[in-house]
Amino acid sequence: SCVEGGPCFSNGGCGATTCTNPEPSTCPGKDKGQCKNFPRNPYKCGDESVGYKCLYDNTCLVKDAGFDIDADCCQAPDAGACPSSYEPVFCGGGDKICPYSNMCLAELAGYSDKQCSPEPGTACPTDILICPGGEMLNRDPDNGCKFPSCPCDSIANCRDCLNEKCAWSPELNGGNGGCAKNCNKVPADASCFFHKLGHDADTCPANEIVWEQAAPTLASRKDGDYFGSNNQLDATGGRFLVSAKKSSEASGLKEAGMVKVYDVRRNGSVRQVGQTLYGYRDGDEVQGVLALSGKRLAMFTPKRDGNAGRVWIYELQSGKWVEIGKIERPKESGERFGDTVAISKGGGIIVVGSTFANNKKGKVSVFRYLGGTAWEQMGSEIPGNFVDGKFGWNIDIASDASTPTFVVGEKSDDADENSGRPGQARVYRWNRSNSKWRMVGNEIQGQNPGDSFGRSVAISADGQTIASGARYFGNKDKGGAFGFQYLGGGSWISQGGVVGDSAGDELFNVAMNKAGDRIAVGSGLGLGYVKVFDYGPSISGAGAWTQIGDTLRGKALGENFGSEVSLSHDGETLLVGSPSRDNPNQPGAVRLYKLAPKGTYPEYPHITWWEAPSIQSADPEDNGLGYSSMSDEDTRGGGATSPAATTKRQAMASFVISAFIGVAAALL
């Protein structure tokens, strides 16, 4: 039987952390044979000074957690005790989320029978508060509203609180740094449930949750090359692409641009994947986008052949980026094919914007891979609607939609502000039955003339949620980003949005996670800053965007931190570009962040990645220069040149490698 010393307990007692019975559910006892050590903030069970009943469903679990047992402890059946397990339930007509699994836990938080449902498993306070950091807490004034970046001392100022210090004295918050009042006295189920952050509901975290830099800062070797001008994470956040469109690293070329791909290792070190890809001619200013699989990329320039434009597609094969095709437009067409490019999850579809086509109305073209180096256009080109609208300025592809789906921005900010064109976003889906692109729902319009809505766009994996940045939205160009969800019926439903902090911020660069409920938004002017927001229920019951983690800011004037942002699929990894457009006397940079308790990662150094010049292969079509033929290891030094040059470069490479190893060793 399931009793102390019985077959369902190892070592014959309740102190064990595992059970000998492989099927604990077969044990008839109320604890199901599961004797576990729960990492709770301990309080003495039955202590009248605390005034709480036991949280555990039987004496075994009470003992196992290290609590004394007396007459007030839980020796009753589950219906009269507090279960140790936690299951969130929906109640209140489905528009609220209850953080309590039954009446017992609700009572622990101070709710009366009149405020809670009497049925076990459906207890729900009259009003649930979603804190700005993503945690769900109640309106219990003793607990207040606790969240990672902004603990508050009252419900009234919870959403707007900016104080980043704990509102409670150490004796009230238990000294655990969690900043939840009485967190050491209230069972964790009733005091801090981390809905978005994935923390165990049984623990109160000891540290503030912030965006921690999780890898060294990567900076360019030369000033003014816009390193960080276009960047992208793969789905996992473990691989990323960086562009430097003004780079003159390619031998003999000026502002040809370059593209690099890096892997982040578990110890935080960063390693280049494959060779560096360069533009082929002066002024190409190439940039790149990475497929979410991390195995393919597209490199593009809208300036080739008199603003005709060209796109190259590469695949990672045996550690090198190998060209698997290129797409171009007739010379001197002037349509700027490749002003922006999006690539599908596996890299088999690319969507290309040509913003100068048709009197700058713009257009979008879609291509799919046929094998070898062959690509074909999918359906007809999609035209813009307005002169100077520049349809195709920004594009994003839904990674997991049932049929190819993408969102396109038409910024319209070159037009007269009195023209009534605030900018727009449109979503298109491939119709397999007739091989045509079909617009999903209506056009999504900005709010005010001249907002430049659609200048930056992002879409969820399923294609049902989008976000669009409006660079000049609000009083004196604060900027903003706005979310929309498609529920059918031809209309996109507004989810509200977020606005820049101050006049002139131009907060609009946007990225979205897979689920579509988290966005990163950057203001890339001057110093620059980035904020991340989650979408969920608010105090009023309506949906709202609430900040998650702290605000990230640039470190030097003119670095334009936040000009480019990218989120991993789970939304836990963030890549931020600082191309330093406003300060040509400093190098561009990229920084990688992860959402984690403060102090999780060490302070990473600022690393300038040195790369020796290399012999580059000739492009047989235009006699320009091709991509570097170096392998991963070769990027640390020399290509195939003269023996004297090779010796000199090897010496320099040896010095750089030694310096890097020293830095890496210090981090391990």
TrEMBL record:
It comes from the Eukaryota. Coiled coil: none annotated. InterPro entries: Gal_Oxase/kelch_b-propeller, Integrin_alpha_N. Residues 620-645 are annotated as: Disordered. This is Uncharacterized protein. It comes from Minutocellus polymorphus.
